[in-house]
Amino acid sequence: MALFGKKKDTKKDITKEEVEKKQAPAQKALSTDYNLDSIIISPRITEKSVAQGEKNVYTFNVKRSATKYQVRDAIISLYNVTPVKVNIVNKKPAKRLIGSRNRMKHVKGEKKAYVYLKKGDTINLI
Q: Is 91 exposed, middle or buried (0-12, 13-18, 19+ CB in 10 A)?
């Protein structure tokens, strides 16, 4: 019982459209099914993020459900620069001791994205 035949169809008619597709370089199109404006909540303005901004690394607060690719697409559409790399850090919600009396307080979780740009590209956050 043979599932696959040994004969292969070696003759294939190639149309002009297929030849043009092979010769033309593939272009990326940003086709998204989500709202790019809602992916990035706000830029993070802290001492660490300002110091990293001089090294072309920018930090943003992003939605908890955002992925690296969604953040990349949002940066391209909002700031017109292409990131080299995107790292995401997920801080989980927790209960912490706060204040002099050591009261328990609920600290909500957050997700932040580090966006690396090539030399010469900048993002004006102010």
A: exposed
